[in-house]
Every structure is written in structure tokens, then in C-alpha cells.
What does this fold into?
Amino acid sequence: MSTAVSLVVGADGSSLKNGSSKGVSSQADRESFVARRKSFDAIIIGGNTARTEPYAITPVPLIVISRSQVNPLPTNSKAQLWNMPASQAVERAKKEFGPKIMIEGGVAIIQELLSANLIDTFYLTVTDVIGGEKLVDWPEILNSFATIDKREVDGTLFFEASN
It folds into this structure.
């Protein structure tokens, strides 16, 4: 069973710029992100991510973790709203959809899953963007993993970390 996290940040650790991760992304990141997510059985995001990012269409079922009873993605027929901790959502998603779960939520979800030792692979992209919001100490997150592979494409750094 495999649970992976995908996160893009700017060079200064910004996870958002102008309220969206698109602001810290690059063309190389988008291409890698779109190709990678198709290989998973389901995607999990948080409610804030659902409200601020373009999730109207996803290649696999999408689970939105939120306390709200209002689905922020009513046009995505693959979206489901679950009110539960991320760790429980991962376990339920594996039972309902299959063993390969991609987490595309924010840092709070990532920290919860790291604390519960539920992340097998961490895909991190670092672009040259600076001056955004929601800073992430990505080197600290990488230190949670035993193996870290690094590559560069068109000035964008890609890390794949695992235990």
C-alpha cells in the first residue's frame, strides 16, 4: 500500500502565491504533477485546497476532508466530502478505492500524516518563485525520510523522498 504526498513550493518555501499553488508552480512542475496523479487510485485534499485550487476535473476519485457540510466541488462528479481526520480518510480511501492514495492537501494534512507515519513517498517540487504566502519548512519535511532523490528540469528542482 502506498500513500504519497505532492507539494510544490517556491524557493523561499512559499506554498501559495496570490492565494493559489499555481502561483508557485512552473511548467515542468505542472507536467510532472499531471502525469503522476493519474497513477493513483484516489486523491485526498482539504477543504481550503478544494475552495482555492482548480479541482473541477480529476482523473480519479477525489476526497475532500472538511468540517463543512457543503461540497466545495459540486461540478466534480468524482468528488466526495468526508468529515474525518486525514489519517482516517487515508485508511478509508484505501479500502474503498485501492492502495495508492495521493495527498494534495496543505501542510496541516501533511504534518498529521507524517506524525502518524502514513506517508510512504513525498514528491516535492521547488521552483524559483519567491514572495508568496504560507511558508513551508520543506527541508525539515525532507529530513523525515531516509532516501531522497533529487533532479532538476528547466530550473525546477524535483525531490522524491521515501522511507
